[in-house]
């Protein structure tokens, strides 16, 4: 009897413990809310592009893309001679380099004037600028030398927005200025009189149209050596602006080239010499020795308003006299320093 009572007591104790453990778990499960199940995200399929749509997109892209211009090739393609084209074998011009400038200290430059000159290639002394011969290094016209140097990235061309070499200009813009923009002309069938398609017409560049160049230079008197130096800073070919009837309105620079960067290129080309073809000088020597004729179009002498001569002198003859007067002032400054 005692044994049975003990077993009953143990059973009652075990039942109470199990109830205490199960009840809190049930209460916890009733108080917490079940988490909602997330719906699976379906990936959208890419839209199917038809062949007609691809063709339409490609056509639009071609129509919007701007047309690229290339610098015109002056003359034929460079064809090198396979034999020694001359009685004397000339190799020195290939190794020529310009002589370095003499350094001028800022304190020694006691006199400085800037001058802008125009070179007219129709004058007899300036005819080497128009020499049309073809040699192993290409066309010998000066405009061809400039364009080839820009195409080969030997020099950098600058925008004619100003003459201080502030903004480089792209070859596309130079080509557009040389040959103009392409014109679209409708092509008409002569038999039916109906329009067939549009034809793009581009103009050809004639290098003989460049007949003038502008040179920016600075005259400096060095008191250390007691000598007047002329340092060319830039060269710009000029494009003549004409009316529809052909009359000239004026000139505008196509681009500017920094002359110290151009000197190594000019040392590789020889200028034409009509008196002795065997004693030709390089273009770099021609500019340094000033073997050309130009007239002053602007200077810093007595010019507080920074105007060109054509803005305050309307008569062409009087402009030439004003140009000579400017040159004479610079010459007299050096001569007046000497006492005899």
Automatic annotation (TrEMBL):
Endpoints of the signal sequence: 1-19
Compositionally biased intervals (Basic residues): 34-46
| Residue numbers spanned by region Disordered | 30-49
Q: Name one Pfam family in it.
A: GldN
On the tree of life, the source organism's domain of life is Bacteria
* Keywords (A to Z) from UniProt: Signal
What is this protein called in UniProt?
Answer: Gliding motility associated protein GldN
> Which organism is the protein's source?
Dinghuibacter silviterrae
